[in-house]
Amino acid sequence: MKILLVGGGSVGSIAPLLSVKRYLEKQDHKIQFIYFGSKSGPERELVEKEKIAYYSIPAGKWRRYFSLKNIFDVFVTLTGFFIALAKLKRLRPDLMLSAGSFVSVPVASSAKLLGIKIVIHQQDLQPSLSNKIIYPFCDKLTVSLPESQKLFFQGLGLLKRRSKAISKIVLTGNPVRADLDLGDKKRAIKFFSLNTELPVLLVLGGSTGAEGLNKLIVGALEPLTKVFQIIHVTGKNKTSKTAQNSNYHAFEFLSSEFPDAIKIADIVLSRAGFSTITELAYCKKMSVIIPMPNSHQEDNGQYLFSKRAAIILRQDGVTSENLTTFLRKLIFEYNLQKIVIKNISKLMPKNSAERIGKVILNII
C-alpha cells in the first residue's frame, strides 16, 4: 500500500499528516509514504527528516480577492496539474491525504482523473478555499470541529444531494505531533537556561513567523523580562539582533525542543493557526491569542472566545505597553486560568490521528 501526503506553504498543514502517518505505520509497517509539497515552503525539511520521498509541485495561491496574480497563478496551477499527473502515473499511490493547502488543488484534480482515492482534512473552523474546491469529488472529508461540518454543505438544496454530502464528512478532531507527551520541564530548564523563580511566557508566531507579535514582544522586552522568562519562536530570519536580555530566549524555530518548551510554559501567547490551537488544547495551556488580522484566524479566535477557551486580543488594539500590563495581571488570575484551561482541554477529541487513520483504512 502506498499513501500520498500533500501539503505546503506552512508547517501547520504538515503536523496532522505526519501524525496520521505514524498511526498508520503502527498498523502496517509495510505502508509506503510519498509527499507532494511546495518548492520553497518550510515543510520540506520536516518531511525529509521523516525519510519520506519529497516531490515539489508548482501551484498558484488561490486568493479570495481580486488580484492580477490570480490570473498568472491559474497557469501555474495548470502546470502543477500536468506535473502531478505525470508523477502520479509513475508513482501510483492508492490514496491521497491532504490537510488543506494550495498545492493540494492540482494534485487532487490529477488524482481524481487517475481514480486515486482522496481524503482531505479540514483543520480550521472555516473551510479553506482549497478544501472547498476539492470537497465535491473527494471520497471523505474529516473535520476538527462539529461546527465545520455544516459549512461544507450550506446551500445544497436537494435533499438527496445534501444527504450524500453529509455522509462524506467525519468528525475526527485535529491530530497533534506524537512527541508532545514527551515534554520534560527539567530538560527545558537546562536547554533554555531558565530562571526557575520566574514564570515562563512562550511566544509562538507560527512556522513563518508573525511580525506583529515579534514587534510587540521586542517593544515590551524590558518590563516583561522582569516578571517572565520568555521563550520566543520568531520565524525564520525574524530574530531581532537588538533584543538582548538574560531572561529572553529567541529561536527561529523549535523542533525536538518544542514539547519541552510548551510543557514548561505558564502562559502561551500565539497566533490563531489551528495546528497551534490544537497543541495548546492537547497540552491544556493558558493561552492568549492574537489572530492574524483579516484572515481565517479571526474566525478561529472568535470560536475560542465563544467557548471561553482562550483570551482573545485584537492586534489593532494591542500595544507593547498594554500587553505588558495585561500579562502581568493575568499571571495572578488563578481562577480565570483554571476556567480557560478546563475549556480549551475539551475542544476536540484526543485520538484524532487514530480516527483519521481508520477512515483511510476503511476506504482503501
Helix content: 40-55%
Low-confidence regions: 156-160
CATH class of the largest domain: Alpha Beta
Our estimate of the beta-strand percent is 15-25%
Shape field: globular
The largest sheet has its strands arranged as 3-2-1-4-5-6-7
- What Rg is obtained from the alpha carbons, in whole angstroms? 21 Å
Q: What structural category do the secondary elements indicate?
A: alpha/beta
Tell me the name of the CATH homologous superfamily of the largest domain: Glycogen Phosphorylase B
Number of strands: 13
- Per CATH, the architecture of the largest domain is 3-Layer(aba) Sandwich
Count of distinct structural domains: 2
List the topology elements.
Blueprint: E1 2-6, H1 15-27, E2 32-37, H2 43-49, E3 53-56, H3 68-91, E4 95-98, H4 104-113, E5 117-122, H5 129-134, E6 140-143, H6 146-153, H7 159-167, E7 169-171, H8 185-192, E8 200-204, H9 211-219, H10 221-224, E9 229-233, E10 248-251, H11 258-264, E11 267-270, H12 274-282, E12 287-289, H13 297-306, E13 311-312, H14 320-330, H15 334-344, H16 352-363
Parallel strand pairs: 1-2, 1-4, 2-3, 4-5, 5-6, 6-7, 8-9, 8-11, 9-10, 11-12, 12-13
Helix pairs in contact: 1-16, 3-4, 8-11
Organism: Candidatus Yanofskybacteria bacterium RIFCSPHIGHO2_01_FULL_44_17
Pfam families: Glyco_tran_28_C, Glyco_transf_28
Domain Glycosyltransferase family 28 N-terminal: 3-141
